[in-house]
Amino acid sequence: MPRKVEIIESYIVDDNDYHWFDNYDELIRCKDCKNWEADEDERCMYCGEGILPVTEACMGYGFCSMAKPKETE
After folding, report:
1. Which residues contact residue 18 at a Cβ distance below 8 angstroms, ignoring those fewer than 6 apart?
2. How deeply is 28 buried, as exposed, middle or buried, from its count of CB atoms within 10 A (0-12, 13-18, 19+)?
3. Cα–Cα distance between 26 and 28 in angstroms, integer?
């Protein structure tokens, strides 16, 4: 099944022109991390590992360098 992924890339800027430099890894949002936990209504959300303090502004769209993808079936 197709899925959307976000990739962490870097570029070198030369005279306002972007030159691709490297592809580092997939960016994993909190809501897609195996450590992300929420109640039934998704009103109380938190990082099960205590890595990232979760605020209402985040609502699962934040990310950190310790994220691990959820296991898929």
Report:
1. 11, 12
2. buried
3. 6
In a domain, 70, yes or no: no
**Domain total for the chain?**
1
- The answer to whether position 73 is within a domain reads no
d(CA 50, CA 1): 31
Secondary structure E strands in the chain: 6-14, 17-27, 36-38, 45-47
| Predicted local distance difference test score (pLDDT) of residue 69 | 87
The answer to the question of residue 15 being in a domain is yes
Give the pairing of strands 17-27 and 6-14. antiparallel
pTM of the predicted model as reported, rounded to 2 decimal places: 0.63
**Count of CA atoms in the C-beta half-sphere (13 A) of 24:** 7
